[in-house]
Amino acid sequence: MTSQRAGTAAVDEVVDIVSRLIRFDTTNTGEPETTKGEEECAKWVAQQLEEVGYTTQYVESGRPGRGNVFARLAGPPDSDRGALLIHGHLDVVPAEPADWSVHPFSGSVSDGYIWGRGAVDMKDMVGMALALARQFKRDGTVPPRELVFLFTADEEAGGQWGAHWLVDNRPDLFGGITEAVGEVGGFSLTVNRPDGEQRRLYLVETAEKGLSWMRLTAHAKAGHGSFLHDDNAVTDVAEAVARIGRHTFPLVMTESVSEFLAAVGEETGLDLRPDAPDLDTTLFKIGNIARIIGATLRDTANPTMLKAGYKANVIPQKAEAVVDCRVLPGRQAAFEKEIDELLGPNVTREWITHLDSYETTFDGHLVDAMNDAILAHDPHGKTVPYMLSGGTDAKAFAKLGIRCFGFAPLQLPPDLDFAALFHGVDERVPVDAVVFGTKVFEHFLMHS
After folding, report:
1. Cis peptide before 214 (omega within 30 of 0)
2. pLDDT classification of 314: cutoffs 50, 70, 90
3. I want to staple 362 with a disulfide (CB 3.0 to 4.6 A). Which of 213, 280, 306, 385 is the partner?
4. Given pLDDT bands bounded at 50, 70 and 90, which one contains residue 122?
5. Largest Cα–Cα distance in the chain?
């Protein structure tokens, strides 16, 4: 449905809103005792919504201070369509100020960028959603379907005290929602065509690898470090870690990745067929995004932590390691079988965290609305599906049968290493990209 809005309010305030959001230090350390700032930021978001007339729900997800905010904007009274969830998380990963060019929580706007921790992950999209929610309510906009705005806690630590807690304990809050859009999708990838022209592809996330953190443990008899020992927990774990860390899992072509490679191959002329003789190397010719795409061709298992011993001359009774595992859709059983063959006889494994993979198809009205919104503001653009090598809160919402996509539109400079900005030093987002994204997102929501 059409709106009677002026159409510029969200664009006028979105940069300030993103900057203000960054100035809230919502660092998520992964430990509830030291995570901070989520409650203060969530209540500020609720205040911005209530200021223009929303009735909000502030919900703490299982622990004090783990704040989440819900707000609903009604669609047509006679609509039989399900609601659309627009979700974004307020927490960010830690940042060390000494490493940065600007303070990571300054929200500085300079040199054409908004700087700070969370600028791309994901206070840019939170800012766009909040600015549009305010504009819609202020102007009496009636969208084509009910819109549910949700701002969550704890995504950066897997969502145990955020989206997953809400889904498991308060499913009533998601009543009527059938589809959702969130982070890490909709951004542009500029590729070179054989005719010398360039084409902007906008990557829509239709799939995510599973996220599983695995603990390896070995036990042995304690003893003096000067004796001969054929039973050593440190050795057993170290050997298992080395085997896993050096292992290459088989290439598996999922639907989302196959469609992405076909689209990029068509535009660039590169041989990106699944059976191409040197696919891994060829992929890097499309730019830095290849680090993400390459990680979606196969499962990965990267050792990240080691723990053993308490004194240099004592053989410890136990040694442990943690491995970050990312598993393709449909591969969990085969992945675990391969891991078990690599462990060795004296090492056991357990899941510390286990979140399923997710994949949906690149079709339907919502996908058409995304493409139309991009074309309305970039007539030569093209949307293509892709798989995220990491994970988002979509994993939680999918448990309720909600169809999830990543669509936070940004038109990026061709030479910007966007992938490196996620959790990176000097995280920043172009001002022009946020303004562009707000316009595209408005068009999308008004035709969703």
Report:
1. no
2. confident
3. 385
4. very high
5. 83
Question: Taking a C-beta distance cutoff of 8 angstroms, is the pair 46, 56 a contact?
Answer: yes
pLDDT 10s digits, 39-51:
999 999 999 999 9
Q: What is the mean pLDDT of residues 167-194?
A: 97
Backbone angles phi, psi at 145, to 5 degrees: -150, 165
In this model, does residue 68 exceed pLDDT 60?
yes
Q: Decide if 330 contacts 404 (C-beta within 8 A).
A: no
pLDDT of residue 420: 92
> Which position has the token pair 């100020």?
97
Q: Which amino acid is at 335?
A: F
Residue whose structure tokens are 């316009």: 439
Joined tokens for residue 287: 């730019």
3-state SS, residue 59? strand
Helix (H) or strand (E) holding 278: none
Separation of alpha carbons 404 and 180, rounded Å: 5
Token couple for 62: 């299982």
Kind plus residue range of the DSSP H or E element containing 215: strand 210-219
Type of residue at 369? A
Q: Cα–Cα distance between 94 and 81 in angstroms, integer?
A: 40
Exposed / middle / buried, residue 106 (Cβ in 10 Å: 0-12, 13-18, 19+): middle
Residue 257 near residue 388, CB atoms below 8 Å: no
User: CA-to-CA distance for 219 and 241, rounded, in angstroms?
Assistant: 15
Token pair 């085969």 in the structure block, residue:
334
What's the pTM?
A: 0.94
Residue 346: what residue type? N
